[in-house]
Design brief:
With 443 residues, the protein is an alpha+beta fold. It has a domain of 147 residues. It is built from nine helices and 26 strands. The strands form three sheets. Strands 1, 2, 3, 9, 10, 11, 12, 13, 14, 22, 25 and 26 form a twelve-stranded antiparallel beta sheet that branches. An eleven-stranded antiparallel beta sheet has the order 6-5-4-8-7-23-24-15-16-21-18. Helix 2 packs antiparallel against helix 7, helix 3 crosses helix 9 and helix 4 packs across helix 9. The chain starts with 7 loop residues before the first strand and ends with a helix.
Length: 443
């Protein structure tokens, strides 16, 4: 049974650095989460400690109190939809819904396969975790709010950084978990299977292990990623086993704001150039690439079609090239006017995830190929991270450009969209380009 919880929200006179805030809280032994995007209309949230967890459980999702005892349960094969139903019950008992930043909020994410419990190196992360923190610090359009959901939570704002207690890593020893030759052979096999009609597209990922000669600080990694990729979603989620999941994602899975929903699927990539003219030349190659356009069209069409079930109208712009620090992507911005009552952010995420941009198409055939050919535990890689509030609004980013960190190393993940005409050597080069984003942030 859910017990009513008092929530207190106030506006802060100063805006703390959210990465510093979560780093200090983690050093002090608190569980932390961070979702940050320094864009004009974006919402950033630092979550410190916990009051409730909505967490994957056998046959559905459970609501756990801070002590770990189960106080509610929602059955369902689709854990995202079950989590949405449970969150609706919980948020009504916590406090009246208010505008963004001024009420209850749940922060977290879910694995690429929410129906499977992650194993191996991902044992510290459940298939789904949405947390009501003891203290949430939310930055919204230049204003900063704090929301305390437990007594004394405001003291977390005063935690002082302890700094790294041991020398930081300066060198990395990077090893592919799977031999690159074997991985490119898997890409070649996948392309042949697509040519035979097994599927239209499949995404295959690689995993590398980077071991440092010193400490790999999760806070420093998040800070470096934020500086290097300022238009991306920077995120950090600590695991129950002391690991941390961090990354800088360029891709919006879904945002719900009142009666509107937004998504921006990305598929099709090319490197940045040495200068602006080189950038433009490479971008033209991307726009003119039959392979990349076909790959992107599958993803954007799926997202638009999935949103129509919930919407009065859906508008998809023409694909554009978006540039990040070391890579360019084809992207389509999709806007939906939702039916009344508007579907919650979690319901929309359940309908969209996984998009063909991270899985493939058709979904069952692509999943079978991934299970057969990929040979790794994705965990939360290519899942999603984000937040949802007391009104059902929220924002979830696809968990890309990411790594699972421990004290002196990390497991890094990068994937590519394989099409019938894919060149395995080029796909390998694309994964190396994506790994570079994280490797630079680890030291």
């Amino acid at each position: 049974m859910i017990v009513a919880t008092a929530v207190r929200t106030w506006e802060l006179d100063r805006t703390p650095d959210l990465v510093d805030l979560v780093s200090s809280a983690r050093d002090a032994g608190h569980e932390v989460m961070l979702i940050e995007r320094p864009m004009p209309d974006a919402v950033s949230v630092a979550a410190l400690g916990r009051v409730y967890d909505i967490v994957a459980a056998r046959g559905g999702v459970a609501l756990e109190a801070a002590a770990g005892n189960v106080i509610d349960f929602e059955p369902g094969d689709d854990r995202l939809q079950a989590a949405s139903r449970l969150w609706r019950r919980l948020r009504e008992s916590i406090a009246p819904a208010g505008p963004i930043g001024a009420g209850p909020i749940a922060v977290g994410g879910f694995a690429y396969r929410p129906d499977r419990d992650p194993a191996g190196p991902w044992s510290g992360f459940p298939a789904l975790l949405l947390r009501v923190p003891a203290l949430a610090v939310t930055r919204v359009r230049g204003r900063t709010f704090a929301t305390a959901a437990s007594a004394g939570a405001e003291e977390l704002l005063e935690l002082a950084p302890t700094g790294v207690r041991a020398p930081a890593a300066r060198r990395l020893d990077v090893t592919s978990v799977r031999n690159p030759v074997a991985w490119t052979a898997a890409v070649e096999t996948a392309a042949k299977r697509l040519q035979a009609g097994d599927a239209a597209k499949v995404v295959l990922a690689r995993e590398v292990v980077a071991r440092g000669d010193g400490v790999v600080s999760a806070g420093m990694v998040a800070r470096s990623l934020r500086a290097a990729y300022p238009s991306c979603f920077t995120y950090l989620v600590t695991g129950a086993d002391g690991t941390a999941f961090a990354g800088a994602s360029p891709e919006l899975l879904v945002r719900r704001s009142g009666g509107r929903a937004y998504s921006q699927p990305m598929a099709g990539s090319v490197a940045r150039g040495a200068n602006e003219a080189d950038d433009d030349r490479l971008a033209r190659q991307l726009v003119e690439s039959a392979k990349d356009n076909a790959e992107h069209r599958i993803a954007s069409q799926f997202v638009a079609d999935a949103l129509r079930e919930f919407s009065r109208t859906v508008e998809a712009r023409e694909p554009e090239v978006v540039r990040f620090t070391n890579i360019q992507h084809l992207a389509t911005t999709i806007t939906a006017e939702l039916k009344t009552p508007a579907a919650d952010a979690l319901d929309l995420a359940a309908a969209l995830h996984p998009t063909p941009a991270v899985g493939g198409w058709p979904r069952p055939a692509a999943e079978a190929l991934i299970d057969e050919l990929e040979g790794l535990e994705r965990g939360w890689y290519a899942g999603a991270v984000g937040w949802t509030d007391g009104l059902g609004d929220g924002e979830f980013a696809v968990a890309l450009r990411c790594g699972l960190l421990w004290e002196d190393g990390a497991r890094l993940y990068a994937g590519v969209g394989v099409m019938p005409d894919s060149d395995p050597a080029r796909e390998l080069e694309e994964t190396e380009l994506k790994f570079k984003a994280l490797l630079m942030a680890l030291t």
